[in-house]
Amino acid sequence: MTAKQPKQGRKTISICIGLKRDRVYIKNMKIRLEEFGYKKIFGIFLVTWFLANIVQAMVMDVISDEAYYALFGQNLAWGYYDHPPLVALLTRASSLLFDGNLGVRFTTVLLQPFVLILIWKTIGFEKPDARKVTTFFIISFSIVMFMAYGVITAPDVPLLFFTALFLYSYKKFLDREEWISVLLLALSMAGLVYSKYQAVLVIGFTVLSNFRLLLKYKFWLAGILALLLLSPHILWQISNGFPSFQYHLVARSTEFRWIYFFEYLPNEMAVFNPFTLGAVVYVLVKQRAEDLFSRNLYIQIVGFIGFFWLTAFRGHVEPHWTIACSIPMIILLARRCDIDPGLRNYTYKYILYSLLLIVFVRLFLCFDSSITRRIGYKGNKEKYTAIEEVAGDLPVIFTGSFQRPSLYPFITGKEAVVISSLYSRQTQFDIWKFEEKYWDSPVFVWGDYGERSQDFSAGFTSFRGFFAKNLQTVNRMGIEFELPSIQMRSGDPMEIPFVISNSYDHDIDFGHPEFPVSLVCVFIRGKEVHLVPGKVDKPIGVVPEKERVEGTITVVVPDIKEGEYSVGLSLNTLFGPAKNSRFIKISLENGR
User: Fold this and answer.
1) How far, CA to CA in Å, does 357 sit from each of 54, 133, 366?
2) Residue 499 to residue 536: CA distance in whole angstroms
3) pLDDT tens readout for residues 416-431
4) Exposed e or buried b per residue across 54-90, where buried means at least 16 C-beta atoms within 10 angstroms of its C-beta
5) CB–CB of 298/306 below 8 Å?
6) Where do the structural domains in the chain lie, given as residue ranges?
7) Using one digit for the tens of pLDDT, what is the confidence trace for 265-309?
8) pTM for this one?
9) Sign of the torsion formed by the C-alpha atoms of 298, 301, 307 and 309
10) 478-589 architecture in CATH?
């Protein structure tokens, strides 16, 4: 298809986009759009973007992560196991205005237009016009995850906002070191950390791009003020034993796999759009940074992508972890398109057409299908209302991670909790300890527990579970122990002295009729969890509240692969082995 030339004197334009004559098309479009003025065009794009996001936010099911953050908002604190607290404020504010989907997503939808305005102001075109506005929105819309975080609520939403504010403030600070710039820098740095811990990279790469900042006392004042604003969160981390850092820096580490390394770049291409990312690479290679601010944009992009590629050596990298550098990408491409006709033509020939696929995917996610059900964007209401029909008003006990016990209360308004084990990671539920409210009370336990469970069905949904009369859990019990050696051979006996502490306000019965407890030794390597039962020197019956029980357990080192393992003691129940003790690194040799 080609664009037709308008007749002389007419101010009309063909809606077709030509591949050979797109320059004429852009020129004609500029004449047409400038009748409105670039500010009105900017407003039209912004309002259209906002309305499209509102519609999708209402139609597309809330996913499990969002339901989890909705629980954050209902239980406000200065920190959470997985993330800093700002995402909780987003969901809390949304819930004060709306119910349902918008009760989680409205502030997210509302925030992104402000992100776009900040980015536009940071670009700071000397002579803005309709063409530059159009190019800016094409680039912005083409970045897949940037667009997604205008609908889906996550810690990345405030991270994007404060990244935009930080870059805007930093550019102002470079121009003139005014006190308003210092205050904005402090606010944006604190907001970054309150959003997500990738904030450290945004700030660190800025310093790396301009070491002279360390000689400026106003920059130090901004940092000190930011630390003061962050002090409540820092105190929360201290009082809770730095759970977020333990999780992100230690617990998420796994054995290296080449698939983690090789899947990284394809995933990043999907997140940023291969056509847009290709344009960014072109600018990085062909154009040198002309000033300090541009140098920061370059380092942010290369630094984020390079840093997280390196982290692939310690485990799987989530593609959206690099989303903060989407803002430097937008700024860089929009500025470069203004002076590079070739890049501008590429934007209208290739990046523009890629938006058709993005629009299709957005529409597809709004419709019920086997794919959207599988990835969690549809079908959640049917699934969890079926459980509610069986459980009634009883609290529902789940195992695994946070997904199910977050979606269940969001959809049904009923109570649920997850009992974590060494087979799953810990979550904010381990800090909330909701299950203590249900101790010695009737509950419905969801899941397949062999003969204990039975089949249930409601509507088109089937599942397994069972009713329990008296819930007992042991996740808050503590175990201290000492290993006789950190060098072990499979088949050798090992005596381990232990002390079990009951921190609950009630007794724990190891012979409980529904939820009995046993003491086991655990060997862990990566995702491998080996439970080794042993012989306790004296039976453990009932551990009274706030009391301690001492003893010795004798176990035989298991016949498993040689290598490094983490060894600890655990209280094993129907829900799996709980994390009751610290784990000690040992070296295991095969005794055969």
Assistant:
1) 20, 22, 15
2) 12
3) 999 999 998 889 999 9
4) bebbbebbbbbbbbbbbbbbeeeebbbbbbbbbbbeb
5) no
6) 1-35, 37-364, 381-468, 478-589
7) 999 999 999 999 999 999 999 988 889 999 999 999 999 999 999
8) 0.89
9) negative
10) Sandwich (2.60)
